[in-house]
Specification:
Layout: E1 25-30, E2 35-40, E3 46-51, E4 62-63, E5 69-73, E6 78-82, E7 90-95, E8 100-105, E9 111-116, E10 128-133, E11 139-143, E12 150-154, E13 160-165, E14 170-175, H1 176-180, E15 193-196, E16 204-207, E17 212-217, E18 220-227, E19 230-233, E20 244-245, E21 249-251, E22 256-263, E23 275-282, E24 288-292, E25 301-303, E26 307-312, E27 318-324, E28 329-334, E29 356-358, E30 364-369, E31 374-379, E32 384-389, E33 400-404
Antiparallel strand pairs: 1-2, 1-33, 2-3, 4-5, 5-6, 6-7, 8-9, 9-10, 10-11, 12-13, 13-14, 14-15, 16-17, 17-18, 18-19, 20-22, 21-22, 22-23, 23-24, 25-26, 26-27, 27-28, 29-30, 30-31, 31-32
Length: about 425
């Protein structure tokens, strides 16, 4: 029986419609359906739409200067640079190795790195790393080490790509220029410098002002800085709780790290009993603040102008949790999802989920209702739902979101989210 014909190339998508210069824009990715919707906020007007694009939910959206974002199409094997405020939504498309695991850039937003992960496989199998120079369009692929490496890109006169490996754990530094100059054929490369880490690293961040890199582990947050051609470890930051963070991000509004601490039995069937705390570490003062969020599944977070937003999924009811700059907590109930995680099952296999997004220059918070094709738009100042947006696809598994304004400073966090 002959192989099935490949999917036909979709017709060109229309050019974006004009939008007010100061209007926030919401990018909604339905990675299952293969669509990207661009909506103005708060009215929900569709500015643009891409079809036939299955973005990597794990690599997420990477904020670039000027309100642009980078993401990876896992079906076509392309890094996309999207300009939701421009005349052409797709500013650039560059072939990269997939499935994309993590995505990061240097502080200038010019030099990008994409690591590969499991995709729909039970064990890590790919050791490919792609580096891209957006200014010249040059790209190269090399082989590093099989796994699911995190990545950051340190800037300066001689930029470094820093991979965060697991089992065995290590920071591995590579000179960006050497990777970009690699010959064809995906050659294996050797790290310029190695710094040991615990084996259970998961979660990466970089502070552009100091050039420090951070990795979340069971022991706490490990940190390192560049010294010549070497990486030098700094004092780890403890979680100070019987729990750990699996997600780590830099707050571009102030020099701080955020995570969500998960505690309780590791058995995924007992997920309704998991404890969750918001964790914030001020890098300037060294002060750490933890705030209880409630039981269930809490993972990624979003940073609005004066609030940090979390979604909490639980069989007794889901909610958006808004943590104010003054540490006040507001809880906003969310309508139930058909196909939501249930007691007796895991919280991530064959179930609906929620994505959350915000912009450091806006008071809006967007939350998806997976499988229903809905996005709740909430005013963080009041906790009121201002609109329910329906981009036009079901958003199975929750989809993925990014909320941008032209100059919101979100690119101060140079790691994909």
């Amino acid at each position: 029986m002959p192989d099935p014909a490949p999917d036909p190339t979709p017709a060109p998508d229309p050019a974006p419609a004009p939008a007010p210069a100061d209007a926030p824009v919401l990018l909604v990715s339905d990675h299952v359906e293969g669509a990207v919707h661009v909506l103005t906020v708060p009215d929900g007007t569709v500015r643009a739409r891409l079809t036939g694009r299955h973005l990597s939910e794990h690599a997420g959206f990477l904020a670039l200067p000027g309100g642009r974002v980078a993401c990876v199409d896992d079906r076509r094997g392309e890094l996309l640079v999207l300009d939701p405020f421009g005349d052409r939504l797709v500013e650039r498309a560059v072939p990269v190795a997939v499935p994309a695991e993590h995505l990061a850039c240097d502080p200038s937003g010019r030099l990008l790195a994409v690591t590969t992960g499991l995709g729909r496989n039970a064990e890590p199998w790919s050791d490919l790393l792609t580096v891209v120079d957006l200014a010249t369009g040059e790209a190269a692929r090399v082989r590093t080490r099989v796994g699911e490496p995190g990545v950051t890109v340190l800037g300066g006169d001689d930029p470094l790509v820093v991979l965060r490996h697991r089992e065995p754990g290590a920071f591995a530094a590579h000179r960006f220029a050497d990777l970009l100059a690699a010959p064809p054929g995906c050659p294996a490369v050797t790290a310029l410098a190695l710094l040991p880490l615990p084996d259970d690293g998961h979660g990466d961040a970089q502070e552009p002002g100091t050039g420090e890199v951070f990795a979340a582990t069971g022991e706490g947050v490990h940190r390192a800085r560049r010294e010549g051609d070497a990486l030098v470890a700094g004092p780890p930051i403890p979680w100070d709780a019987p729990a750990r963070g699996w997600y780590l991000r830099l707050d571009p509004r102030r020099p701080a790290l955020w995570s969500t601490l998960r505690g309780g039995a590791p058995d995924p069937l007992r997920w309704p009993e998991w404890t969750n705390q918001a964790w914030r570490h001020d890098l300037a003062t060294g002060r750490t603040v933890r705030t209880g969020l409630g039981p269930g599944l809490v993972f990624r977070l979003a940073l609005a102008r004066h609030h940090t937003a979390f979604t909490r999924i639980h069989p007794d009811g889901d909610e958006l949790v808004l943590l104010g700059a003054d540490d006040t907590v507001r809880r906003v109930p969310l309508p139930a999802m058909d196909g939501a995680p249930r007691r007796g099952g895991t919280p991530w296999e064959g179930v609906q989920r929620r994505a959350v997004a915000a912009s450091p220059d806006s008071g809006w918070v967007a939350v998806t209702r997976g499988g229903h094709g809905e996005v709740h738009l909430v005013d963080a100042a009041t906790g009121e739902e201002a609109a329910r947006l329906r981009p036009g696809t079901p958003l199975m598994h929750g989809g993925h979101l990014a909320l941008r304004t032209r100059g919101d400073g979100a690119d101060g966090d140079p790691v994909g989210r």
